[in-house]
Amino acid sequence: MNFWETKKLSEMTTEEWESLCDNCGKCCLHKLEDEDTGDIYFTSVVCNLIDLDTCRCTRYTERTQLVPECLDLKQHDFAEYNWLPATCAYRLLSDGEDLPSWHPLLSKSAESVQDAGVSISSYAMKESEIDDLEDHIIEWLE
């Protein structure tokens, strides 16, 4: 059996935890919250630290110091994170779901995320390129 099938998220080593990230970049998209309803809306805008070719943070180890709004997911309770994309391995596993077949741990290919159309690399733009986040709200069919 695979480690993600036998361990809770809280029991995983740092290496196991990090390997669950498929580098889709969706969690790095800026989100807006409706103050009246609490609904979360994703935008197509990402932090300036992300490399849009790899969908990886260029300053990963220091990201939470450089960008105070950036969260270290391992430090939080997943019950709070219904805002994570439905395709996120952390959310799927915390909900008792399986990893999708395109996940790199199953496909053995980092390109499978982009091939499956899950990566943000084809549509995301950096925050320095836009004026108003509300003009960039997106909706996924998940």
From TrEMBL:
<protein>
    <recommendedName>
        <fullName>UPF0260 protein Mettu_0693</fullName>
    </recommendedName>
</protein>
<dbReference type="Pfam" id="PF03692">
    <property type="entry name" value="CxxCxxCC"/>
</dbReference>
<comment type="similarity">
    <text>Belongs to the UPF0260 family.</text>
</comment>
<dbReference type="InterPro" id="IPR005358">
    <property type="entry name" value="Puta_zinc/iron-chelating_dom"/>
</dbReference>
<dbReference type="InterPro" id="IPR008228">
    <property type="entry name" value="UCP006173"/>
</dbReference>
